[in-house]
Inverse folding.
């Protein structure tokens, strides 16, 4: 009877109550059996799982295969890799459940390669096992691998479920792989996967991150009984795509329907104001957080405000805001945002002061050094540049290389600056030469002042010509039909020269070009950009 009661409570997620009944059972001198342990260990927190493990040893059930498997699951979910490995290695026979639990543990700890080795060794795999491995790739910044594995899953005739599509939609969004995302959307609709609130919100997020707001809004409109998460997803979509006014209108629509904004809502709306240069509106929203909605601003909200004020040139106000933060302590990202604004507006004195403070507080990262190096280079202080680069080398800090990707026929192609590895490199560079001809015909002057190296003008121009986004755009031009929209994803902020060149390309070719950089989207149409040259 006791075991039955414990099982029922654990099955319905009432784990604290199940533990209470287990304790009462022991007080009544009733000994647990293997089924008791396998029942109570399901979804049990790690802290209590360790205690129950000792009980299983005490009562002689630690060698039972079901008990061992549920214990392994406890350690896997709790992230205790060492205990999980010891238990897993001691198992004489590994079944599908124990193998999946171990793969889960590896992925939770970021040991993706170890998880994949175990995954590949499995004789049989169910949808749960596939989902764990796919989601592991998605959660740890390997969306390409997630999509490849998903295609292998389909080839193996394993039917995806809701968990699968949520992971794969996230991978598509990370990559900006619109073709793959649309195919998956079609698969969902044609194969009986219910488009519930979770899937609908994931679709909105995917389409927004792929720069297809029209598709995102179509999904948003079809969702019945929207919750605040769905509203936030659509609002953030407007924000990152640079449609500040539309985001504000959506905010008021949401509030008029009785939804109460959350901290995520304000991250979206403050970001939208920052991207669109809506200074007064941003101040009002920030002040309303606590005054009207009782939401204490977090570090992310301060970051949005520093970005908003900094980009608009209100550097002193942004600096004072950071210095006077009371409830949270400024982190390296916040100081880096302010330092970037100093670089953007040429306030080198304030920039050097902030950089010195960051270093003195051990808050520096690669971005700090790079921004400070750029500040020195902009004023021609090459000794300062050399000093900073030496510091970077001595500290083992590496500059993240610029990388741009484009999806063609459901395959994602990646390019680095000056890349010569692509199979179609000859055709790509021929297209680049043609683009250079268009630029000359339009009397375009390369923005060589952004090349912060002590080299000649022609060398600077050559460096600019082979930036990663230009290679990706050239590949898009030779790989797609005329008038087709070209979509690029860049891991860093798009540079001034690439921004201006892309405007020219969009006008000459009559194509829409969408570029998603680290911060936002740029929609280029007929020689203009949606950002209004404010980014």
């Amino acid at each position: 009877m006791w075991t039955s009661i414990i099982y029922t409570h654990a099955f319905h997620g009432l784990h604290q109550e199940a533990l209470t009944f287990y304790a009462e059972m022991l007080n009544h001198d009733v000994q647990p059996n293997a089924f008791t342990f396998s029942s109570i260990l399901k979804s049990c927190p790690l802290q209590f799982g360790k205690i129950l493990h000792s009980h299983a040893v005490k009562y002689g059930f630690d060698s039972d295969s079901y008990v061992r498997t549920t214990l392994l699951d406890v350690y896997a979910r709790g992230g205790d890799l060492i205990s999980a490995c010891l238990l897993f290695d001691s198992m004489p026979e590994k079944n599908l459940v124990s193998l999946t639990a171990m793969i889960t543990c590896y992925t939770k700890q970021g040991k993706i390669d170890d998880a994949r080795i175990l995954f590949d060794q499995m004789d049989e795999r169910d949808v749960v096992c596939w989902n764990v491995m796919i989601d592991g790739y998605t959660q740890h910044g390997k969306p390409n691998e997630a999509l490849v594995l998903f295609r292998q899953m389909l080839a193996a005739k394993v039917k995806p479920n809701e968990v699968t599509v949520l992971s794969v939609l996230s991978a598509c969004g990370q990559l900006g792989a619109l073709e793959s995302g649309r195919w998956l959307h079609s698969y969902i609709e044609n194969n009986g996967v219910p488009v519930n609130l979770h899937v609908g919100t994931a679709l909105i997020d995917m389409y927004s991150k792929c720069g297809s707001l029209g598709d995102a809004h179509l999904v948003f409109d079809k969702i019945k009984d929207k919750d605040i998460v769905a509203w936030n997803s659509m609002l953030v979509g407007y924000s990152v795509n640079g449609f500040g006014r539309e985001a504000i209108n959506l905010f008021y629509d949401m509030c008029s329907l009785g939804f109460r904004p959350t901290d995520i809502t304000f991250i979206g709306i403050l970001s939208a104001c920052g991207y669109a240069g809506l200074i007064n509106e941003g101040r009002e929203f920030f002040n309303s957080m606590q005054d009207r909605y009782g939401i204490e601003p977090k570090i992310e909200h301060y970051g949005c405000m520093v970005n908003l004020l900094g980009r608009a040139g209100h550097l002193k106000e942004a600096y004072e805001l950071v210095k006077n933060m009371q409830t949270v302590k400024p982190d390296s990202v916040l100081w880096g945002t302010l330092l970037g604004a100093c670089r953007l507006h040429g306030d080198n004195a304030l920039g050097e002061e902030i950089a010195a403070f960051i270093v003195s507080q051990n808050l520096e990262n690669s971005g700090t050094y790079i921004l400070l190096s750029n500040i020195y280079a902009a004023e021609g202080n090459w000794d300062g540049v050399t000093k900073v680069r030496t510091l970077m080398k001595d500290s083992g800090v590496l500059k993240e290389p610029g990388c741009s990707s484009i999806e063609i026929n459901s395959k994602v192609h990646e390019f680095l600056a000056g890349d010569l590895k692509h199979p179609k490199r000859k055709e790509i560079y021929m297209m680049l030469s043609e683009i250079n001809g268009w630029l000359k015909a339009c009397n375009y002057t390369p923005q060589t002042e952004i090349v912060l190296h002590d080299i000649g003008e022609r060398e600077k121009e050559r460096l600019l010509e082979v930036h990663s986004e230009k290679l990706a755009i050239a590949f898009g031009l030779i790989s797609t039909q005329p008038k087709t929209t070209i979509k690029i994803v860049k891991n860093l902020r798009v540079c001034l020269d690439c921004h201006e060149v892309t405007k020219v390309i969009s006008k000459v070719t009559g194509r829409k070009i969408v570029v998603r950089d680290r911060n936002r989207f740029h929609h280029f149409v007929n020689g203009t950009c949606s950002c209004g040259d404010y980014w």
